[in-house]
Design a protein that fits this description.
Number of strands: 6
Shape: elongated
Largest sheet: 6 strands, antiparallel
Mean pLDDT: 87
Order of helices and strands: HHHEHEHEEEEH
Number of helices: 6
Radius of gyration: 24 Å
Helix content: 40-55%
Low-confidence stretches: 247-255
Length: 255
């Protein structure tokens, strides 16, 4: 009996393990990010070929009634296919948005990170706001602007905290006296981290102005995740506290 289906399955499994090794090597700090992306580009066609080959191997094994081996081959085929689509998905998502990673509702006076600064000590993207990205952000996300809720600052702060937890962010600092919440998000596969700071300011005791900034620690493009995160947080807060439109602050700033 030909042994090629088992050899194909083992080869496919080896390719999947190499792919996973790159990812977890990066997560452990042993493999540089650019090496991971370079490896993914090379593995992309190999993973897809491995997926098709192990599908054929699975069919041959089922035909021979080697059901356990056939199931294993099918599992390898699915894994290779799923992992093979990751680079393709990242490229497609990256093509939809500009290559930026520092998004804020206030591009003139963006909220500042405080307690998160030490956590970004090894980040390739500096903690300072990158004004070189402002024009691209305004072009890609013109709808992003401060949220003005018709509630007092203490109530708005509680609403913001609830939204942060609902989003699944890990809170680093919550300082009601300063109207500041800092947190970060983690991606499940690569464990990329994006940092978030929410700034709440009192508007004459009648409303609260909320600004949000979300910035990736690594990578040139965030694939649109930071803007979507801000949209989600604002939607959650607006759902609880409402939005005040068409009012002006004492300094003349439109809110």
């Amino acid at each position: 009996m030909a042994a090629w289906p088992r050899y194909v399955t083992l080869a496919g499994l080896a390719v999947v393990l190499v792919f996973l090794g790159l990812i977890y090597g990066y997560r452990l700090g042993a493999v540089p990010l650019m090496s991971v992306f370079g490896g993914m580009r090379m593995l992309f066609p190999v993973l897809l070929i491995a997926s098709l080959a192990t599908v054929a191997a699975s069919g041959a094994l089922f035909f021979r009634r080697a059901f356990l081996a056939a199931t294993a081959a099918l599992a390898v085929a699915i894994s290779a296919g799923v992992f093979g689509m990751v680079p393709l998905w990242m490229r497609a998502e990256g093509a939809k948005v500009p290559p930026i990673h520092d998004i804020t509702t206030d591009t003139i006076d963006p909220p500042l990170f405080v307690d998160i600064v030490p956590l970004r000590a090894d980040a390739s993207n500096p903690v300072e706001y990158d004004r070189g990205q402002t024009e691209q952000q305004l072009g890609a996300y013109p709808h992003l602007r401060p949220l003005v809720m018709p509630v007092t600052l203490p109530d708005a702060f509680a609403i913001a905290e609830e939204a942060v937890r609902k989003e699944g962010l890990i809170i680093v600092a919550s300082v009601p006296a300063e109207g500041r919440i800092e947190a970060y998000a983690r991606t499940p596969l690569f464990d990329f981290k994006d940092d978030v700071v929410i700034r709440l300011r009192d508007a004459h005791g009648m409303a609260t102005v909320v600004d949000i900034r979300s910035k990736s620690r690594v990578g040139r493009s965030d694939l649109g995740f930071n803007a979507r995160r801000i949209d989600s947080l604002i939607a959650a807060m607006e759902d609880k506290g409402g939005r005040l439109e068409g009012h002006t602050m004492a300094e003349g700033q439109e809110i």
